[in-house]
C-alpha cells in the first residue's frame, strides 16, 4: 500500500483483525481492554463502520504496537520504522505554547531518530511563531517519551510536561510554593503556578525548519 494513500475502510478492518489474531486475542478480550463492546468492535472488523481516530491509540496500546502499525501487516511492523520515530503532535500553535498531543490526533508522520536517540524518542513539530525563541515554525523538537516525574536538574529549563489534569505543554519548569508543585513559565502569557505534574521531559534535539522539511516522512492517516 503506497505511503501517500489513506488506508481504505477495508484495509483498516483487515489489519485490525490480523493484529488481533497475531496477538492471540479474542474479539471479546480486545474489546474489554479498550472499553468497547465486542459488538461495536466486531462492526469495525466487519467493515460496517470506520476505525475512528479516537480508537487508534487505545487499540495500539492493547495490542502492544504503535498506532501507525494498525495500517500495516503484522509481519511488516517495525521494518519501515527502523531508524524513524513518531511525530506525536504539534507545539506552538498559540501563544500559550499548548502542545496538540492527544490520542485522537496522532499525525502518523515520522522523522529520523536523532543522534543518541532511543526506542522512546518521539518528536513534536513546531507550528506558528509563538515558540520563536526556542524553535521556528516547521522545526522539530525531539524528546524521550518515558513519562517519568520531573527531577531537580530540570528546574530552570524548558521541558515538555503533562499536568495532573491532562494538559501537555512546553514550558520553562520552575519550583512551586511547596514540594511536588511547579510553576510553568511561558514565553507569552502568564505563568501557570503551583501545578502537579504527571511527567516531564527535556528536549533532546531541535532540528531547524529548513532541514526538518527535508527529513519528515509524511504519512496519510
Overview of this protein structure:
The chain is α+β, with helices and mostly antiparallel strands. Helix 2 packs across helix 3 (38-45). The longest helix is centred in the first third of the chain and has 14 residues, at 9-22. The chain has five helices and eleven strands; from the N terminus they run H-H-H-H-E-E-E-E-E-E-E-E-E-E-E-H. The model is unreliable at 1-6 and 100-105 (pLDDT under 50). It folds into two domains: 9-76, 434 Repressor (Amino-terminal Domain), CATH 1.10.260; 84-215, Umud Fragment, subunit A (Ribbon). It has helices at residues 9-22, 27-34, 38-45, 53-63, 209-215; strands at 84-91, 99-100, 110-112, 121-126, 140-144, 158-163, 168-175, 182-185, 192-195, 197-201, 203-207.
Brief write-up:
The protein is an alpha+beta fold. It contains 5 helices and 11 strands; from the N terminus they run ααααβββββββββββα.
Key terms for this structure?
221 residues; alpha+beta; 434 Repressor (Amino-terminal Domain); Umud Fragment, subunit A; five-stranded antiparallel beta sheet; 5 helices; globular; disordered N terminus
Distance separating the two termini: 13 Å
What's the rounded overall pLDDT mean? Answer: 79
Number of strands: 11
CATH architecture of the largest domain: Ribbon
Give the class from helix and strand content and strand pairing. Answer: alpha+beta
Residue stretches low in confidence (pLDDT < 50, at least 5 long) are 1-6, 100-105
Quaternary structure annotation: single chain
Please report the first level of CATH classification, the CATH class of the largest domain: Mainly Beta
The string of secondary-structure elements, in order, is HHHHEEEEEEEEEEEH
Count of discrete domains: 2
From the alpha carbons, calculate the radius of gyration and give it in angstroms: 19 Å
Annotated CATH homologous superfamily of the largest domain: Umud Fragment, subunit A
What's the main sheet like? 6 strands, mixed
Overall shape: it is: globular
CATH structural fold name of the largest domain: Umud Fragment, subunit A
Roughly how much helix do the residues carry, as a percent range? 10-25%
Amino acid at each position: 500500500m503506497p505511503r501517500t494513500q489513506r488506508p481504505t475502510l477495508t484495509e483498516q478492518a483487515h489489519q485490525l483483525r490480523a493484529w488481533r489474531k497475531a496477538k492471540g486475542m479474542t474479539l471479546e478480550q480486545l474489546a474489554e481492554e479498550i472499553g468497547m463492546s465486542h459488538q461495536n468492535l466486531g462492526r469495525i472488523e466487519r467493515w460496517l463502520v470506520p476505525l475512528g481516530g479516537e480508537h487508534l491509540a487505545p487499540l495500539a496500546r492493547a495490542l502492544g504496537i504503535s498506532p501507525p502499525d494498525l495500517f500495516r501487516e503484522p509481519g511488516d511492523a517495525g521494518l519501515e520504522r527502523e531508524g524513524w520515530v513518531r511525530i506525536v503532535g504539534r507545539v506552538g500553535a498559540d501563544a500559550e505554547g499548548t502542545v496538540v498531543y492527544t490520542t485522537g490526533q496522532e499525525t502518523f508522520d515520522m522523522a529520523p531518530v536523532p543522534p543518541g536517540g532511543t526506542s522512546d524518542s518521539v518528536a513534536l513539530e513546531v507550528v506558528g511563531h509563538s515558540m520563536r525563541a526556542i524553535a521556528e515554525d516547521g522545526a522539530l523538537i525531539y524528546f524521550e517519551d518515558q513519562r517519568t516525574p520531573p527531577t531537580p536538574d530540570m528546574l530552570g529549563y524548558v521541558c515538555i510536561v503533562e499536568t495532573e489534569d491532562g494538559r501537555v505543554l512546553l514550558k520553562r519548569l520552575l519550583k512551586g510554593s511547596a514540594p511536588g508543585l511547579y510553576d510553568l513559565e511561558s514565553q507569552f502569557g502568564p505563568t501557570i503556578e503551583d501545578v502537579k505534574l504527571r511527567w516531564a521531559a527535556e528536549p533532546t534535539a531541535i532540528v531547524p525548519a529548513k532541514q526538518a522539511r527535508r527529513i519528515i516522512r509524511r504519512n496519510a492517516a
